[in-house]
Amino acid sequence: MGTASTNSTKPPMRDSLIAAAFQLFLERGYEQTTVDDIVSLAGVGRRSFFRYFPSKEDVVFPDHEQCLADMTRFLAASADSDDPMVRVCGAARLVMRMYAENPTFSVQRYRLTREVTGLRTYELSVVWRYEKTLGDYLRTRWADRKDGTLRANVAAAAVVAAHNHALRHWLRSGGEGDPLAEVDRALEFVRATWSPDAVVAAPAEESEDVVVVITKRSTPMWRVVREVEASLGDD
Amino acid sequence: MGTASTNSTKPPMRDSLIAAAFQLFLERGYEQTTVDDIVSLAGVGRRSFFRYFPSKEDVVFPDHEQCLADMTRFLAASADSDDPMVRVCGAARLVMRMYAENPTFSVQRYRLTREVTGLRTYELSVVWRYEKTLGDYLRTRWADRKDGTLRANVAAAAVVAAHNHALRHWLRSGGEGDPLAEVDRALEFVRATWSPDAVVAAPAEESEDVVVVITKRSTPMWRVVREVEASLGDD
DNA sequence: CAAAGATATGGCACTGAGTGCCATCAAATA
DNA sequence: TATTTGATGGCACTCAGTGCCATATCTTTG
Q: Which pTM does this prediction carry?
């Protein structure tokens, strides 16, 4: 609210604080670095640090706030004709793209978050906001659907999990390969599961152990499975 | 590690600290209550608080550590013949049962976690440990499977999301109704998605875009999927 | 029973994150 | 030039969390 919304003029102080912080975090570790160390290296007053970052942890994730805003705008620009799951996967793709823009920075930060418990917890709160944004979107899109909110919550969690799977794999590799391709593959895995369409199921009546399913060849297999299961009413 | 494993003799000091803490949290709020307030009401030394609870937030979730241990044991006691997803849903059920044991306490805590950001973040870290435990289990069970780790991560996230959906719904209602039944219903929703079984396929011939699948309920799914995909040639 | 040790607790001082308040400096504006 | 506005620095304060040590209680051992 306080920062200049879409204005791209970034104050140099913010960047110098980030640079100083990461330099110290990487050489002595996060917990061994105090805010006083950071501000003295950056040559600014201690009070200014907390003007730009609400907490010491925030300096580690300087770009997530912007990315979250981008995701919100992306979903708000959705048309009713869009497949909700496709749209949500596109939103998750935005996050991966942000990581991919600065591979070395992302990898360094990953090392930090793996070692420091407090940073991992903070990252969880960030991920939760992404998941909540996706879930809210799906909830409105599936408002009329049976079990719409349950479906929305589960699907949002699945999308986030698939994204994080691809992201962590890429980060562990040190930033090698194409993270966008990886995340697309992982997202397709869940998208096919949660946006079934074009399947008609007709349970048999005479024989109670036989089911007839009619579908198009072009339909991904997962949708068929999902629909058959739903119509069967499983064990 | 340090606490008495299965020994049920709980020190009274721990309980009195929890009681004092919640009394103050509910009347003045979490952030308006200092640790000094808690210990002076409980009549113990300040240092003792941090002997029983690593942080001020931990006193709000006094039973999760035990529950996590229970879940780990439950999964370790799994047999190879168990359906992994069924087992994981049973593990999630344990958590719901813990909440259901103290409805009023759970509802009061829910009110707190909704208002206080720090507590919500802490809860996320707890949920993450549950999800990681479930994911680790599924990963080993699906080690030989194609995309086993991706599948495990996504399925674990889906199970946790379904559990939380039912849990939050029950908590918002003030603890009315049967939370176990609710969570079973939500879990069944994802279980059916991620451990389908019993289909046999036979491709049609006349219409080139329509496929008829006939199957027995008791047939393992995965062979069938491969057969159908092989006969169809997937997208 | 007495001495010695282990465990639980309290007290105290210290570090470090985060906040409120005010002074100061620079740039924009009248 | 005088004034206002916004950004910054400095200072003191609260509070969570930790390390260290003294003390009390309980247990083991001679």
A: 0.82
